[in-house]
Amino acid sequence: NAGVTQTPKFQVLKTGQSMTLQCAQDMNHNSMYWYRQDPGMGLRLIYYSASEGTTDKGEVPNGYNVSRLNKREFSLRLESAAPSQTSVYFCASSEDREVGYGYTFGSGTRLTVV
Amino acid sequence: AQSVAQPEDQVNVAEGNPLTVKCTYSVSGNPYLFWYVQYPNRGLQFLLKYITGDNLVKGSYGFEAEFNKSQTSFHLKKPSALVSDSALYFCAVRDATWGGNKLTFGTGTQLKVEL
């Protein structure tokens, strides 16, 4: 089925460890996004990419880096994980040439940093 | 800047009763408005959107939302709630004039439908 695929689904890290969250979409969308979801705070934008080769900071970029490897893939890297980065991470994509297009979300990565 | 507020953390409704989940927004230009639903351990799923035209928008699973420009609101409604509607609901806004590609989400409202 077409959509947004995230890996892994679950991950436990020790403080200071690094990891990369992978995201791929097969809908030929231009824009891709990384959000984190925390109780009572909704979804907050970490980074986004309006097109292949470009990335921009969102609301909460500190402690993260991203790579838009090609049109399909957008990865999120934690260089030195901290307990404050315990969260559920969602990747999304959108086709912005269509007026008012919304987002398609992946199923999420539940990350725990101990 | 664009923002959206969901004033209720939780809404409780009896099955068969009408439900309303509230959302107000703030944008500089014209708004594109969205509702998404999240079931436990799942990603967000699109329910409906307002772009232009009729103020009453119909979406998936019998949900509808009413756009009110004067009150800057976009409340989600359903005439008869089902237990299976229990989930986390997010309102989102995109400034059609100035917001670029980004959606801004509210903090979410937990809907609980009881027998």
What is the topology?
The complex is a heterodimer of chains A (about 110) and B (about 120).
Chain A: E1 4-7, E2 10-13, E3 19-25, E4 31-38, E5 42-49, E6 56-57, E7 64-68, E8 74-78, E9 87-94, E10 104-105, E11 109-113
Parallel strand pairs in A: 2-11
Antiparallel strand pairs in A: 1-3, 3-8, 4-5, 4-9, 5-6, 7-8, 9-10, 9-11
Chain B: E1 3-5, E2 10-14, E3 19-21, E4 24-26, E5 31-38, E6 44-50, E7 56-58, E8 64-68, E9 73-78, E10 87-95, E11 104-105, E12 109-114
Parallel strand pairs in B: 2-12
Antiparallel strand pairs in B: 1-4, 3-9, 5-6, 5-10, 7-8, 8-9, 10-11, 10-12
Jot down its keywords.
heterodimer; A: 114 residues; mainly beta; seven-stranded mixed β-sheet; four-stranded antiparallel β-sheet; B: six-stranded mixed β-sheet; 12 strands
Q: Distance N terminus to C terminus of chain A?
A: 35 Å
Number of helices of chain B: 0
Sequence of secondary-structure elements of chain B = EEEEEEEEEEEE
Helix content of chain A: under 10%
Percent of residues in beta strands of chain A: over 45%
Major interchain interface with per-chain residue totals: A-B, 25 and 26 residues
User: What fraction, in percent, of the residue positions of chain B are helical?
Assistant: under 10%
* First-residue to last-residue Cα separation of chain B: 41 Å
Number of DSSP strands of chain A? 11
Tell me the number of strands of chain B. 12
The residue ranges of chain B in which pLDDT falls below 50 over 5 or more consecutive positions are: none
